[in-house]
Amino acid sequence: MADVPDRLEPSELRASDADRERVAEVLRQAAAEGRLDLNELDERLGLVYAARTYADLAPLTRDLPTGDVTPLPVPGPSATAVDAPATGNAVAFMSEFTRKGRWVVPRTFNCLALFGGGKIDLREARIPPGEVRIQAFAIMGGIDIIVPDDADVHVSGIGIMGGFDQGATGEGRPGAPRIVVSGLALMGGVTVKRRPRRKT
After folding, report:
1. Burial of 116 by CB count in 10 Å (0-12 exposed, 13-18 middle, 19+ buried)?
2. What is the reported pLDDT for 194?
3. Number of independent structural domains in the chain
4. Out of 62-66, 77-81, 108-112, least confident range
């Protein structure tokens, strides 16, 4: 019988999405208070979302007044999903696509609604640091995009005999993700709306 490996130290166990988000929120708050400049914030957020274990997360807030925010893992077996970005494409042809809940946003997300509809909700999604792009094409169809109300949003799509709502364009809080929405609405519509993040 194969040898059973020794139980890992708590710091070597895998961190969850919620753990990473808690550390990221502490860093964003520190930047808002002037404790970190934007370059430091960007660098640390990159390390947060690349972190795999509690040991990877612990040093990122060690020099901040909030102290150690890395939660201790719960004893007992647990399963952690692999942090892989969702597919970068979605198509609805006389049908519908949906991206919502806890999903990992790719750097570029292309979507097409042709005689159909789509919904993209980023309020609970894991958005990588830096900039993500959503390229939305609605042809005699509709795509609804919901972004967190604290995000930095830039909408630059074109409407031809249709509408491409640009009302959500605006700056977010320091350290917030930047979301760029572009594309085309041809006899269709693309709406982008700001909504508060969902409580988890």
Report:
1. buried
2. 93
3. 2
4. 77-81
0.90 cut: is pTM over it? no
Q: Which of 101, 106, 102 is nearest to 86 (CA)?
A: 106
Looking up tokens 């969902």 gives 198
- Are 33 and 131 within one domain? no
98: Cα separation from own chain's centroid: 15
Enumerate residues 6+ apart whose C-beta is below 8 A from 178. Answer: 130, 131, 132, 151, 152, 153, 154, 172
Up-side HSE of residue 163: CA atoms within 13 Å toward CB? 8
CA distance 194 to 145: 9
Cα-flanking dihedrals φ and ψ of residue 23, to 5°? -65, -40
Owning domain of residue 119: 89-195
Give the pLDDT of residue 11. 63
